[in-house]
Design goal:
By secondary structure, this protein is an alpha+beta fold. It folds into 5 domains: 4-182, P-loop containing nucleotide triphosphate hydrolases (Rossmann fold); 195-279, Elongation Factor Tu (Ef-tu), domain 3 (Beta Barrel); 298-369, Elongation Factor G (Translational Gtpase), domain 3 (Alpha-Beta Plaits, 2-Layer Sandwich), CATH 3.30.70.870; 376-481, Alpha-Beta Plaits (2-Layer Sandwich); 485-595, 2-Layer Sandwich (Alpha-Beta Plaits), CATH 3.30.70. 27% of the residues lie in helices and 33% in strands. It is built from 14 helices and 31 strands. The strands form 6 sheets. It has an 8-stranded antiparallel β-sheet with strand order 11-10-16-7-8-15-12-13. β18 and β19 (338-345) form a beta hairpin. α12 packs antiparallel against α14. The chain starts with 6 loop residues before the first strand and ends with a helix.
């Protein structure tokens, strides 16, 4: 066990793509934890998807030993966190286990929206913050401008910031020196009862659940009987260890140390992030302030293309749930798509990653329905119901009012694209709160309804700003609005997978666009197909797909007109009958394409 004054715990926070994981690689390499031949890019990103997309999805930890110039060896615990807004809960739990943060800012791009969001979170946990300017080897790097920006936008002193290049390894030793000299040592008392916070947990097919903890008081060792305070369950510790980044078994973990233990726990759901781990016989009096439980904000239905894959989909989701406690699902059925699941996600990137993992790791072909958010429906008798799926909306006569979730969005955008971004936010029913400038970039704060954002807001923002805008948001609460359910009818049959909740003022526009899109996507049949968008019993938009027509007059060379008429009448009657009983085949791609609507 290391003396507490020689321990430093820190996390790396930054906007997506500013070089957190690359900096972590260089720190690991500098401390000699990994041989050069084992080194690869983004060493801590273990999932195939993390590596391929070049983003961090799961927060990772590693213990480094650094020999300072005063001759002492310090134990440094590093936590690499995700930068993307969907994984903000991963960031919050890493920050709660540290005393300080390295704030990485790209020296060419400057402060971005998530830089700001993550810094404020770190300041909430009273962190000591060391600014690091990365990518100084780029020709576009401008240290002076970025330093001023850090001071103006974030309001922290950037005079002692460290210029580095994580890619080439320039000035990495100065970062390690600053961690030792400027970050505080952890507090804690070895003699007190065990008190540790659960940072993360994942499933290992050999060991059961592996639990990552940060010890605050007391000692955690093999053979000890521990208790998880939120669930009240007790377990016997089988092994205790640390990551360097490979697993290494140790005798015990003391105050201020970060490591893992295994205790034959069967399900990740039993180990809640933010829970307090204590000794079963001699428990601590008060649990640590836990994290907020993860609230899914976006819901969507996932259905197998082939109905026979339903059981495979169920077991695949259960396996993903083992390692991702923020992903929730329940069974649902749809007339058009058969059996499937209603799933909850933290945001659109989370949704995309889960569907991609289901496709890759389990080889499943899936259809995703329109993403929707959680609405609060107040029935006439005053009761409140949560509604995740537009198809479950009760009869409009029973509804008193509907509330929808609103977010506060911070958008950073270069000056020349400001007009387009403001128009986009206005079109999405946004309310502007503030507009400030730092150099040639504007920071806009808008309040927006979440259901206008989950659709394709991010894609539109990127295309309007040529990819230069950055965006971060947080939920601020629910507001009452004039919302209606828009249903889609194909050949007079409702298609529940395409129904959605929209604001009444935008319903006709949305309905027209959806009908036009479906007209292009549904192939012609032998009979006419009407496509309608409706609110209750009122049709607000309609398109008709014309029938494929067989030439029944091909064999008539001249001859009496009454014979031609008879053949055409017969064809007409056949088409009428066909339209009555004919089943319209909607291709699966049409569901996905119909929901990607341009404004």
């Amino acid at each position: 066990m290391t003396e507490r004054s020689y321990i430093r715990n820190f996390s790396i926070i930054a906007h997506i793509d500013h070089g957190k994981s690359t900096l972590a690689d260089r720190l690991i390499q500098f401390c000699g934890n990994v041989k050069d031949r084992e080194m690869r890019q983004q060493l801590l990103d273990s999932m195939e998807l993390d590596i391929e997309r070049g983003i961090t999805i799961k927060a990772q930890t590693v213990r480094l030993n650094y020999k300072h110039r005063d001759g002492r060896t310090y134990q440094i615990n590093l936590m690499d966190t995700p930068g993307h807004v969907d994984f903000a809960y991963e960031v919050s739990r890493s920050l709660a286990a540290c005393e300080g943060s390295l704030l990485v800012v790209d020296a060419s791009q400057g402060v971005e929206a998530q830089t700001l969001a993550n810094v404020y979170q770190a300041l909430d946990y009273n962190h000591e913050i060391i600014p690091v300017l990365n990518k100084i080897d780029l020709p576009a790097a401008d240290e002076a401008r970025v330093k001023t920006q850090i001071e103006d936008v974030i309001g922290i002193d950037a005079s002692a910031s460290i210029p580095v290049s994580a890619k080439t390894g320039v000035n990495i030793q100065y970062v390690l020196e600053a961690i030792v000299e400027r970050l505080p040592a952890p507090h804690g008392n070895k003699e007190k009862p065990l008190k540790a916070v659960l940072i993360d947990s994942w499933y290992d097919s050999y060991l059961g659940v592996v639990v990552l903890v940060r010890v605050f008081d007391g000692v955690l060792k093999k053979g000890q009987k521990i208790k998880l305070m939120q669930t009240g369950s007790a377990h016997s510790v089988e092994s205790v260890g640390i990551f360097r980044p490979k697993k290494e078994i140790v005798k015990e973990l003391g105050p201020g140390e970060v490591g893992f233990f295994t205790a034959a726990i069967k399900e990740v759901a039993d180990t809640r992030v933010g829970d307090t781990v204590t000794d079963d016989k001699n428990p601590t009096e008060t649990p640590l302030e836990g994290f907020k439980p993860v609230q899914p904000v976006v819901f969507c239905g996932l259905f197998p293309v082939d109905a026979n894959d339903f059981e495979d989909l169920r077991s695949a989701m259960a396996k993903l749930r083992l390692n991702d406690a923020s992903f929730s699902f329940e069974m649902e059925t749809s007339v058009a798509l058969g059996f499937g699941f209603r799933c909850g996600f933290l945001g659109l990137l989370h949704l995309e990653i889960i569907t991609e993992r289901l496709d890759r790791e389990f080889n499943l072909d899936l259809i995703a329905t329109a993403p929707s958010v959680v609405y609060h429906i107040y029935v006439n008798n005053g009761q409140m119901r949560e509604m995740h799926n537009p198809a479950d909306m009760p009869d409009p006569t029973l509804i008193g009012h509907i509330e929808e979730p609103w977010i506060e969005a911070a958008i950073f955008v270069p000056d020349e694209y400001l007009g387009g971004v403001l128009k986009l936010c206005q079109d999405r029913r946004g309310r502007q709160k503030e507009l400030t400038y730092t150099g040639t970039r504007a920071m806009i704060v808008y309040e927006l309804p979440l259901n206008e954002v989950v659709f394709d807001f991010y894609d539109r923002l990127k295309s309007i700003s040529r990819g230069y805008a950055s965006f971060d948001y947080q939920l601020i609460g629910y507001e009452q609005n004039d919302l209606v359910k828009m249903s889609v009818l194909v050949n007079a049959e409702p298609v529940d997978a395409l129904s959605m909740i929209v604001h009444r003022s935008r319903s006709e526009l949305r309905g027209r666009m959806l009908c036009e899109k479906l007209k292009e996507l549904i192939p012609q049949h032998l009979f006419k197909i009407p496509i309608q968008a409706a609110i209750g019993g009122r049709i607000i938009a309609r398109e008709t797909i014309s029938a494929l027509r067989k030439d029944v007059l091909a064999k008539c060379y001249g001859g009496d007109v009454s014979r031609k008429r008879k053949l055409l009448e017969k064809q007409k009657a056949g088409k009428k009958k066909m339209r009555q009983f004919g089943k319209v085949e909607i291709p699966h791609e049409a569901f996905i394409q119909a929901l990607k609507m341009q404004d």
